[in-house]
Amino acid sequence: MKTQEIGYMDAPIPVGTDLKKEINRLRKEKNAVILAHFYQRPEIQDIADFVGDSLALAQWAAKTTADVLVLCGVHFMGETAKILCPDKKVLVPDLNAGCSLADSCPAPQFEDFVKLHPDHTVISYVNTSAAVKALTDIVVTSTNARQIVESLPSDEKIIFGPDRNLGNYINSITGRKMVLWDGACHVHEQFSLEKMLDLKKEYPEAEIICHPECKRYIVEVSDYVGSTAGLLKHVIKSPKKQFIVATESGVLHEMQKACPEKEFIPAPPNDSTCACNECNFMRLNTMEKLYNALRFGKPEIFVDENVRKKAIRPIRRMLDISAQLGL
Ligand code: 13P
Ligand code: SF4
Questions:
Q1: What tens digit of pLDDT does each residue of 130-147 get?
Q2: 101 ligand 2 Cβ < 6 A
Q3: Does the CB atom of residue 189 touch ligand 2 within 6 A?
Q4: What is the DSSP-derived secondary structure letter of residue 267?
Q5: What is the pLDDT of residues 194-206, one digit of tens each?
Q6: Nearest of 237, 234, 242 to residue 267 by alpha carbon
Q7: Does ligand 1 have an atom closer than 6 angstroms to the CB of 189?
Q8: What is the mean pLDDT of the segment spanning 22-26?
Q9: Which of 80, 100, 142 to mutate to test ligand 1, by most ligand atoms within 8 A of the CB atom?
Q10: How far is CA 57 from the centre of its chain?
């Protein structure tokens, strides 16, 4: 991470600046698009040109004609966009927006793990660094992981990393025996089963829905398991009126907008004194930092060209298979 890039993030903003107006002006002037993940702050989702899950953000990045992409998400999402669009400027409003799951899989250790399993196909979740993607055969997201694994011959040996919960879930629904890296996301691992079941007693008609990064005991009591985009689609089409939602609570904003007549209850964390179902990394991006990113054209994401050339292959493979599967 380049320190000179970070200096611009918190640059003072003149008093009285109309942030929305200025962001709109700058994005036109710079031919920029603002792409936001569903876990972003509501005001960022509302001003974005596009809001989506990790797969849709990568698909958008791959096809945009904009000169500048402001990726309102976390670092690996910016890296994925940069890998796909090396000639474009890719900005992440706060370069400190990392990901505990990606951090749970350092590239040198992952390389050793890959070497220990020489006859295995390497599948990596998109929540990984560019260096880990460079060691990978196929990247997946939670929207396409099942279908991509199922598209491989049933006897194919597979390593899956870094999320043990998603890996266990895919093993359970496909019958595969993928060898799993032992990583996890700190937000999705902290939902309380006991409190969730208490909540279900309070809302007996509610459906429990969860992201597959949650622990197995949360997945087992859930009526629907899916990516952020999958969860959103599910609540739109479900006849149910109440939903207990076990994922980062930012996604509730889009759910409520799409279904104003339905009720969305965030699943309770183990520790009731914290807002632990908010991803502290995702929340680092603010309207002020988004404005500064457009204003200064920084902080920018860079990926080493040797790494990029290796990392683009498994991402392209994911995009190609997803296109064939209509995802
Ligand atoms: P989605 O791909 O489902 O949007 O998930 C991304 C993520 O970071 C989940 O924690
Ligand atoms: Fe990473 Fe978890 Fe935040 Fe998603 S919610 S970006 S997996 S730390």
A1: 999 999 999 999 999 999
A2: yes
A3: no
A4: P
A5: 999 999 999 999 9
A6: 242
A7: no
A8: 98
A9: 142
A10: 9
C-beta of residue 168 within 8 angstroms of C-beta of residue 130:
no
CA of 153 to the centre of ligand 2 (A): 30
Cα 253 to averaged position of ligand 1 atoms, centre (Å): 15
pLDDT digits (tens, 9 = 90+) for 282-327: 999 999 999 999 999 999 999 999 999 999 999 999 999 999 998 8
Tell me the ligand closest to 73's alpha carbon: 2
* CA–CA gap between residue 69 and residue 294 (Å, rounded): 10
Q: How far is CA 123 from CA 36, 164, 200, in A?
A: 25, 13, 35
pLDDT of residue 6: 66
Token duo for residue 298: 């920084």
How far apart (Å, rounded) are the C-alpha atoms in residues 308 and 133?
9
Where do we find the tokens 């309380």? 192
> What residue has token string 């500048």?
68
> Is the CB of 149 within 6 Å of ligand 2?
no
Instruction: Pick the ligand that lies closest to the CA of residue 53.
Output: 1
Does residue 222 have its Cβ closer than 6 Å to ligand 1? no
Q: Write out the two tokens for 117.
A: 């399993």
Cα-to-centroid distance, 53 and ligand 1 (Å): 6
Place of tokens 């990113």: 293
Confidence of residue 219 (pLDDT cuts 50, 70, 90): very high
